[in-house]
Amino acid sequence: MIHALLLLWLALLVSGDTRAGRMLRHALVVGPARWLSRWTRGDLLLLLLGALFAATVLWVMEEEGGVLLAMIGPELIGWMAMFDIGALLDAALVTVTMASVVRLRDFRRAILRRLPRPRAPRSRRAVRPRSVDPEDGPFTFPKIHWPSPAWAG
Q1: Contacts of 61 (CB under 8 A, 6+ apart)
Q2: For residues 80 and 72, what is the distance between their CA atoms, to the nearest angstrom?
Q3: Residue-wise over 3-23: b if at least 16 C-beta within 10 A, else e?
Q4: How far apart, in whole angstroms, are the C-alpha atoms of residue 72 and residue 77?
Q5: What is the largest CA-CA distance in the chain?
Q6: Is-contact 43 34, C-beta < 8 A?
Q7: Which of 99, 76, 98, 79 is nearest to 88 (CA)?
Q8: Contact of 79 with 89, CB cutoff 8 Å
Q9: How many CB atoms lie within 10 A of CB 146?
Q10: Phi/psi of residue 142, each to 5°?
Q11: DSSP characters for 24-78?
């Protein structure tokens, strides 16, 4: 691998400003420089922590650690490549929130259907004046309404 890179570097130096030289310069210099210029401190810290994790696993578990890293490697690379995972988490949270709002609205409706509805207060009838009884005269005794005992119902 090192020999191939050294030969490509030698070809880049020899070709100069030819069409092949411009292609090699773009592939070996400009492309990697653009890629590296997009890295941030967080990306480098993540790379350093990943290398430290791999070294620790290899040191502690020796041969089994190598097998473990070989199995988990593609998953870790995929997660590290998804630096915009925060946007995916936000989208998932919005989806779950909207679904729960819809469910809560339906739940509220179901509860309200089962509860008794408040009734409008009844209006009292207008009290009609008592009809004039010809037997009631100025010297008659008033009718007495005795209260019934509480146990009588």
Answers
A1: 68
A2: 12
A3: eeeeeeeeebeeeeeeeeeee
A4: 9
A5: 142
A6: no
A7: 79
A8: no
A9: 5
A10: -70, 150
A11: HHIIIIIHHHHHHHT--HHHHHHHHHHHHHHHHHHHHHHHHHHHHHHHHHHHHHH
How far from the centroid of its chain's Cα atoms is residue 119's Cα?
Answer: 41
The whole-model pTM stands at 0.36
- With tokens 């469910």, the residue in question is 103
For each of the chain's 153 residues, which pLDDT tens digit applies?
A: 788 888 888 888 888 888 988 888 888 889 989 988 988 887 788 788 888 988 998 899 888 888 888 888 888 778 767 756 666 677 788 888 877 777 777 777 877 788 787 777 777 777 666 656 556 556 555 666 666 666 655
**Six-digit token string for 58:** 């290899």
Residue type at 39? W
